[in-house]
């Protein structure tokens, strides 16, 4: 989702600048709304938290002020144990903080074909993410709420493939992320 699937392939997937419709990524909309911000897209389609963790330190080497951590739905999609995702997320949160980089926690998104067990796992994972963010005093963006169908919270409000948000969903995710980051950014100025 961070990469911009299915609209965009990130610079990690198609070096050096990525490829596709840039409006299909939340980073585009964040910079569109806040042109003074530079938001790097380090997403790779389909990765689990273990795969993201394996390359996480590379992202931290860029020395960002914030790092948006949106991970876990592919663990659920692949029916991996929930503690795998929570352990990896906690490690990433701690690694960012240890390098004086503010982690921005995000809830994971629903997907249309989720089984009842997968939908329940997404709910449990999101509750864990919210509690971890509160305990660690991290900003949190409820990107799940930003993209879900108000009539059916276990489905996307709009999607070209049933797995990822439509362009409007990516724009809504960006606004949710801006709302989470901006108060901290204003306090630092």
What's this, in brief?
The chain has 189 residues and is mainly α. It has helices at 26-33, 49-60, 73-77, 82-98, 116-136, 143-147, 167-188, and strands spanning 8-9, 19-20, 66-69, 102-106, 140-141, 148-149, 152-156.
Describe this structure in words.
The chain is mainly α. The chain has helices spanning 26-33, 49-60, 73-77, 82-98, 116-136, 143-147, 167-188; strands at 8-9, 19-20, 66-69, 102-106, 140-141, 148-149, 152-156. 48% of the residues lie in helices and 12% in strands. It has a three-stranded parallel beta sheet with strand order 3-4-5. Strands 1-2 form a two-stranded antiparallel sheet. Helix 5 (116-136) links the parallel strand 4 (102-106) and strand 5 (140-141). The radius of gyration is 15 Å and the shape is globular. It starts with 7 loop residues before the first strand and ends with a helix.
What is the terminal-to-terminal distance?
30 Å
Strand content: 5-15%
Give a count of the beta strands, DSSP E runs of length 2 or more: 7
Describe the sheet with the most strands. Answer: 3 strands, parallel
Spatial order of strands in the largest sheet = 3-4-5
The run of helices and strands is: EEHHEHHEHEHEEH
What is the general shape? globular
Uncertain residue segments: none
Q: Using only CA atoms, what is the Rg?
A: 15 Å
Which structural class matches the secondary elements? mainly alpha
Number of helices: 7
**Mean of all residue-level pLDDT scores:** 97
Helix content: 40-55%
